# Entry
Amino acid sequence: MGRKLNTFVHVADEHGAMHVFGPDRDPEPWAEKAITNPDVWEGAEQASTPAEPVADPDGPPPKGGAGSGAPAWREYAARNNVEVASDASREDVVAALTEAGIPTE
# Structure
């Protein structure tokens, strides 16, 4: 057939039915036309970027999502020798860190 894929792709046909093609299955001519991402074809250089940003283990915790709670911020304050109450809220810890000149971003 035509070009070879270097990864798996999902392609909807003219009826909306999904089909999967990959390195082990050459796409049919209609699917080859529908695949518009040039990075999925053999010979294309694949980007090596991580799916999610990697947090600096010595840096501040995130301000939202997993690991953003007050306990993580209190631990970060302790690592930076900033004293906060054991029940301090995240906002109180961030304020104390800012006042001490410790990065919070």
